[in-house]
Amino acid sequence: MPKPIYVLNGPNLNLLGQREPDIYGQATLDDVRERTQARARRYGFEIEFRQSNTEGEIVDWIQEACAKACALVINAGAYTHTSVAILDAILATDIPCVEVHLSNIFQREEFRHHSYISAACVGVICGFGVKSYELAVEALAERLDAVEG
Ligand code: DQA
Q: Where do the DSSP E strands lie in the chain?
């Protein structure tokens, strides 16, 4: 059994489904977890899916992922645009990381156009709602040479 793919979610993503549905859609974080898990299983991967509103906890989980995961998917929420600590944590890992966003951050306010963490990621997927997560897992699975079952 391969190591799991860690899927980490930052602040306010626990409110998905009720939070600004025009932007983020109707799906809840549980729906995101289920759809991402289903996509990962097609490639023989399990996911470890977590959410935190706290920057330090996310840093701790990235450090944990370095030892326990084969890859990382991260939606750092607003920390995307502010957190050098999360950037440094990802830089310190040697596993591939994909940055995801539900919304197209480039279509939104100027302050969302810059991501601190993109520089440490193998790719960025944004604007496809829950599908952004599924695409990230698929891209990582292919990068890790997994074959779809
Ligand atoms: C987000 C985009 C961020 O700008 C925002 O702060 C979020 C969610 C997204 O998934 O579209 O919390 O990461």
A: 5-9, 47-51, 71-75, 97-101, 123-126
Query: For residue range 61-100, what is the model confidence (pLDDT) as tens digits?
Result: 999 999 999 999 999 999 999 999 999 999 999 999 999 9
Q: Which atom of ligand 1 is nearest to the CA of 126?
A: 11
Measured in whole angstroms, how far is the alpha carbon of residue 26 from the centre of its chain?
A: 18
From the list 24, 43, 116, 133, the catalytic residue is 24
* Sheet with 47-51: strands ordered across: 47-51, 5-9, 71-75, 97-101, 123-126
Name every residue whose Cβ is closer than 8 Å to that of residue 82 and which is 6 or more positions away in sequence: 116
- For 67, 117, 139, the CA distances from 43, given in Å and listed in that order, are 21, 26, 11
> Is the beta carbon of 27 within 6 A of some atom in ligand 1?
no
CB 9 within 8 A of CB 77: yes
